[in-house]
Design a protein that fits this description.
33% of the residues lie in helices and 14% in strands. By secondary structure, the chain is an alpha/beta fold. A 7-stranded parallel beta sheet has the order 8-7-6-9-10-11-12, sandwiched between helices. A 5-stranded parallel beta sheet has the order 2-1-3-4-5.
């Protein structure tokens, strides 16, 4: 049985470290483990692979993989895999939602704290050696308490669920938005369907986007939805950049129709130097680092091998993606 690993990316941490394949070969000697450092030999190697670890494959590569039974994505979002060929196949896709979700939730909460306590503004004043106590208090969006504030978590999956627990522990009012609002979620006081998204947005002091990318969620936060945010509200995106219409976002932030935004993801990454977002005082940008942790690959190994043992024993897999829905 052949296991193929192909995880090429410009960012070093998104690539599997050498020890990952070595440990798999040692712990599972029944597998032939092939680790590619780029895509140059992918077409040849995938032809007889039974299992592939990858976050991006083309439809023609899926079609050529006649023995392929399982694809595991080391990302949570799997839109880069969702070709027509994959959707038409019986290949099982799993993702790393439980590897990244709790870590990204921590980052989302850190951004909530940073915005509420005006930390980005304080750091800007620090660079100018200016004691800005009065300036920060006089600003339109003043420092505020989290206890009693309302947070709307749009997407109650691997990120949204742990975030809801954290926010609830801080005694925030937690509301959620998900495709199936009838499903309960620990820590969430009320759950809305997407048909009632505008109602949820209008209540929130903080809106956190933690959604997969689908045709339905692309530019979910358009000009009309951004206009639903309260003047004192903050928008936080730890999902994917295309969840927000960036041109509409820039326009709303310039007009200061709501308090500000924190973005860990953008429509184009890296964010181009000429983007107006860089220079906006009401924007906090982190460079897609919400999921970064020194323990990430160890967490990947533990999660993947848990599923690998199930696969080898013909048991049902965990963290399975719906290939029709794309998440």
């Amino acid at each position: 049985m052949k296991l193929l690993i192909v995880l090429h990316h410009r960012f070093e941490l998104w690539q599997a470290p050498p020890w990952f394949a070595d440990r798999l070969a040692h712990d599972f000697p029944q597998l032939a483990v092939v680790h590619l450092s780029d895509y140059s030999h992918l077409n040849d190697e995938i032809a007889d692979a039974d299992i592939v670890i990858a976050w991006s494959l083309r439809g023609v590569q899926i079609a050529a993989a006649k023995k392929l039974k399982w694809i595991h994505s080391t990302a949570t979002a799997v839109h880069a895999l969702m070709s027509d060929e994959l959707r038409a196949s019986n290949i099982v896709v799993t993702n790393a939602r439980d590897v990244h979700g709790p870590v990204v939730a921590e980052h989302a909460l850190a951004l909530v704290f940073a915005l509420a306590k005006r930390l980005p503004q304080a750091m800007r004043f620090q660079r100018h050696k200016h004691w800005a106590q009065q300036d920060i208090w006089d600003a339109t969006a003043r420092p505020r308490e989290l206890q009693g504030a309302t947070i709307a978590i749009v997407g109650l999956g691997g990120i949204g669920r742990p975030l809801a627990k954290m926010a609830s522990a801080l005694r925030m009012h937690v509301i959620g938005v998900r495709e199936h609002p009838e499903r309960p979620c620990e820590g969430v006081e009320k759950i809305y369907g997407f048909a009632d998204l505008d109602e949820a947005l209008a209540q929130a002091d903080f809106v956190v986007l933690a959604l997969p990318v689908t045709p339905k969620t692309h530019h979910l936060m358009n000009a009309a939805r951004l206009a639903r945010l309260k003047a004192e509200a903050y928008l936080i995106n730890v999902g994917r950049g295309v969840l927000i219409d960036e041109a509409a976002l820039i326009d709303a932030l310039r007009r200061q129709t709501f308090a500000g935004a924190a973005l860990d993801v953008t429509e184009e990454e890296p964010l181009p130097p000429e983007s107006p977002l860089w220079a906006m005082d009401n924007v906090c940008i982190t460079p897609h680092i919400a999921g970064l942790t020194e323990q990430m690959w160890q967490r990947h190994y533990e999660a993947f091998t848990q599923n690998l043992r199930r696969f080898l024993q013909n048991e049902s897999l965990l963290w399975v993606v719906d290939n029709k829905k794309g998440y």
